[in-house]
Amino acid sequence: MSGLSRRPRSDSHPARDTASLVLRTTLGPMLVAHGWNKVAGPGGLQGTTGWFEALGLRPAAAHARLAAGTEIAAGVGLTLGLAAPLPAAGAVGLMAVAAATDHRGKGFFVFRGGWEYVGVVGGAALALAILGHGRYSLDAALRRDRSGSGAALTAAGLGLAGATALLAACYRPQQKADEIKTTSTAAPSSP
């Protein structure tokens, strides 16, 4: 069944349901952990705010909270298998913003700051949208099946549209560079 059907899946396959469960319980908790780290990790929310400020996301405090909340919500939704394809859309949006800001221009490999990690997470989220949350999910218990190519297109479209709107409205990396340049040229020179 493809598209955004709300009917229970009649062509359920144990292998597909198990694959979805494995992918959900791998990706979901990882997103929750990343979101929680933004709030309660070594630098806490203040450190995350400073990081977002350095990236050029304005207002940084709002973006720190938005990113943490979206990661946690998407992670919980994926882990529990609830509200497909919305958690996948959240993951796609998060990863698109990360790719365009923190990982931009750094190549492929994540150990060099590249987009490898965000690409895998975004791709895995879209794979889950195609697979659906499967038999072992809250969506199945609620008799909702939103899977297939339509669900993946919805997740990709919502995620990318949200990321594009956020970046257009709030991403100001040049402003930060100009502030640094102004501060360094305005500082008195040492003798």
Instruction: Give the termini distance in whole angstroms.
Output: 75 Å
How is the main sheet built?
none
Q: DSSP strand (E) fraction?
A: under 5%
Backbone CA Rg: 19 Å
Low-confidence stretches: 187-191
How many strand units?
A: 0
Mean pLDDT equals: 89
Shape: elongated
Structural class: mainly alpha
Give the ordered list of helices and strands. Answer: HHHHHHHH
Number of helical regions: 8
Helix content: 55-70%
Describe this structure in words.
With 191 residues, the protein is mainly alpha-helical. Helix content is 69%, strand content 0%. Mean pLDDT is 89; it is low at 187-191.
Notable characteristics:
191 residues, mainly alpha, disordered C terminus
Topology (elements, then pairings):
Elements: H1 14-40, H2 44-55, H3 60-80, H4 86-100, H5 116-131, H6 138-141, H7 149-170, H8 173-186
Helix pairs in contact: 1-2, 1-3, 1-5, 2-3, 3-4, 4-5, 4-7, 5-7
Put the structure in a nutshell:
With 191 residues, the chain is mostly helical. It is built from eight helices and no strands.
